[in-house]
Design goal:
358 residues; alpha+beta; 15 strands
Amino acid sequence: MHARFAPVRDCFHDLLASGRETGAALTIWYDGQQVVDLTAGSRSGHGPGGEPWLPDTLVNVYSVGKPVAALCLLLLVDRETVDLDAPVDRYWPEFRTPATVRQVLSHTAGLPAFPVPRPAAAVADWTLLTGDLAAADPEWSPGTVAGEHAWTYGHLVGEVVRRADGRSVGRFLAEEIADRWQLDLGFGLTEADQLRCADLRYGDPGWPARALGEPGSMRARAMGNPTGGLDLAVLNSPLWRGAEVPAVNLHATASSLARLYAGLLAGGVLDGVRLFSPELVAEATGVQYDGPDLVLDRDAHWTLGMQWEPDGSWGMGGIGGSSAWADPERGYTLAYATAHLAEHDRVDELVEALHSVL
């Protein structure tokens, strides 16, 4: 690691020494090069006796996976297989909501929650959940307002990929993006890859209730169905790790997420392999919607799959504390992947340390 970035390393180790972190990885690229790559703590739960977190440890990063799902569909847009401004039903005829592909990608389609209550086991039934969405009535007129499609996003985006291409979004990601850019991440893990996963754990017992929000709120409806998405017994199970729930169950290393954003920051090319055109990257990372978000209950700037921040950075954080983004102004990409489900103050402190040395 470059000596210049020692304050970032020190901050990372302080988080573990203080007990605010129990297992995580941090990777930073700056000026087109990887400059920080750290792992620490345990992948198998609390306490010093657990299995150590290794460079190839995978962890569920929740919404950090939404841009990754979006990129699968955007690759089909770049290849002119899918038209951003076409109605979704051009590709998915049973889909009743009059939304465009662009509206689905920018969280304005009006389907922020699965409409039919389903048990945790339903996460493994793609046909059931996409059928529920196809038949649903939108909660607002598509394009008029945003609401993070917390659990539904990956099924909406992924089914358009499947209808247009023939492959599931997990297989498409593996073959068209992860393999070509050498990224260690995926939806719907094999049994072998499941053996590399870190077990999620609660930073404190109140975390699931805080994450879900007010009972009956749109946020609670969006994140509480199917059940089990905040329940460790489900999250750490083969059912969850083997299913494709692309909105929230990407399993990834921090190094692969930082690498992915480095390729986007370079205009769609990584190690000489061009995946996306510069025009597509510009379109995908530009603000599509700026205004209130009914699920987040605050104003948000949505791109085609990411959140844009006022400092010009774009990417996505996940509930629990994982995050990945690119900062074009400062010239870096950063990924923080954690199994310790808590707030985002950890990554905020790491960013402060990083900005202090840039």
